[in-house]
Amino acid sequence: MRFLIISFLILSFSSCQFLDNEPQGKKSNAELSRVMGADSIYIDLDQKRIKLQQRRLDSVFKKLQKLSGFNGTVLFAEKGRVVFENAYGSADVRKNRDPLSVDDRFELASVSKMFTAMAIMILREKGKIDYDADIRTYVKEWPYEGISVRNLMNHRSGIPRYESLADEKWPDKNISLDNEAMIRLFTLYQPSTYFKPNNGFHYCNTNYALLATIVERVSKISFSEFMEEYVFKPAGMNNSFILDVPGDSLLSSYIEGAGVPGHDARRKGYIMVKNDYLNGVKGDKIMYSTVRDLYKFDKALNYNLLVSKETLEEAFYPGSPRNKSKKDNYGFGWRIRGNADSTVYHYGWWKGFRSFFLRDMKQQKTLIVLTNKDKGPGSEHFWNIINDSSLSLYPASVNLKYEEDNGSWY
Fold this sequence. Notes:
Number of strands: 16
CATH superfamily: DD-peptidase/beta-lactamase superfamily
Strand order of the largest sheet: 2-1-14-13-12-11-10
Radius of gyration: 24 Å
Number of domains: 1
CATH topology: Beta-lactamase
Largest sheet: 7 strands, antiparallel
């Protein structure tokens, strides 16, 4: 018995020595992941559930395709794993040709706003922007006083829509309007505001167009360059970009080469949407991306790769007082679902495109849907997917890896 106790103590001491001598940091993590793939162990437990989810989701979207003409791409992820991704329909809706793929780029419309907000948060962390400063600190010619950067982020500025102003005052609709020209219109005509700053909520694209201009004025580079350098590259979003339409330039008939074309419904069928003079305004729209790239952004948020956890949490904090008549709220570039815990989302619609980005952070579920039709299934179908817990996956150990070739995390 005494011999057994001594042997046990020796073995224990040896084990402690072995642990003490283990290499620390990234290298040891990489070595351990090669020895034992923790992800595969957990994922194997869920294979049956994942396959059932895939069949169920494919059935849902095929049904939506048949009943409502759904045409687009889909990605659903849960607990760090892509459970389902697929494409339905065609890039050319009119002639039902050129089958879509999950790597096709779509115009995100207002889903672009979460990226504009991220640019502001990055500059805030760098000490370049104060959320509560008057925006005339950064855009000196802006004619309205008392509006803060935070007011723009939360849609509480009271500023009217630039689309209405431009439709009335922009003289030639064949010439592109950009952010600087938009500001000149406001400076020249100064239309009445809806309310005093921070005295109400009014969802308005002008807010986020102004935020993009602030990014340019502060960073001294174009908005598209800033996004590429500080958001897309760090997140590994190699198939995403902000479309640059030069201001005061003659419009092309269609946007070509950016991604799949958008389509609007007409009485006799769908038409391909032509280029629009408002497409030169950035920040509120005109970002192109794929479902896979948007999921990379989702992971970048989960791992705090772009801003700190504390900074990001502000994006999901309600920007307006609670209102019984309005269940949902708005943070920084995200709508906040009032009847759910830790759930944020955004929808987008613009010139033949519709987009949906839903994140249930508590359940670790993400659903991304991109379409190139102005008509299709409503968001309730997508919330049903998020809220369905009948096939929930087990928690998984997900190792974040660094890809040295392109300098991104995946």
